[in-house]
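2024-03-11 09:14:02 INFO queue: dequeued item Sigma-70 family RNA polymerase sigma factor, len=269
2024-03-11 09:14:02 INFO validating residues
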Amino acid sequence: MVKALSFPMMAERQHPLIQPLLTLSDEALIKAFQDERDRGCYFVALYCRYAPLVYSVLQHHGRSPVQVDYLFAKVWHGLFFSLDLVEFTPEGLKVGDEEARSLRNWIVNRTATLIQEELPGIEHITYILQDAPPPLWCYLEASLAYLSPLSRLVLVTTQTFHWSLERVRAYLEVQGETYSLEELNQHLEEGLARIVEYLPPDIRQIYLMPDDPPAVQPTLEELFPNSVEEGGSHVDGAPTASMISSDVTGTTDASIDNLLAEWERILSG
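2024-03-11 09:14:37 INFO prediction written
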């Protein structure tokens, strides 16, 4: 019996910023992605081109729909943070030490590699594809790098792990950093506001300013796809922390960055 396949809805494909790009070659899209970092439309166009292929490969391996969506997002997350390394050659392309005959083959190889990884149980996966399409998730995470270290820490612990500000304050005090709840709340509000400001304008236009918005728009907090229960012992293994630490420094940034590094180890474990 042939398994019926379904694909995620990609409203992005119909957006006027994306439609003209769908006629460009893979090489042209990637070069534009590498050269014009203030525009996200090129990555979105690549996503629209290859998302059905990736999704169908994942579905063929019999995962649950929740795990398929989770793996689907992880594949695109990995691709997003690797595209800077893509070089086209007469034989195909190179990405660091990897070689492939075409971009399509490279994407399939990346997908196949992730399929072999051990997955968290569906009860631990809270990612919702409709709330956080992979391109939006990737650019939200990239924009974390522009926040101050403390704002990033407060944002990640409260939005990804659903910690209360009281728990964040207690954790920081143990590490020798003392802040009031008012200060932490200020950093949270600043982080939530600025993470959107730091998105490329076209990403905001495509995902956060739709022409026909749904009756209930997801909040920014709902767009963080790796949240886990505050008291849970399992930590989701998605790669959300790869852009949390940065070189932004300040008077207490060294100790804050150490805490961020600890969160990165937890998230990557």
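2024-03-11 09:14:37 INFO annotate: The longest strand covers residues 86-89.
2024-03-11 09:14:38 INFO item closed
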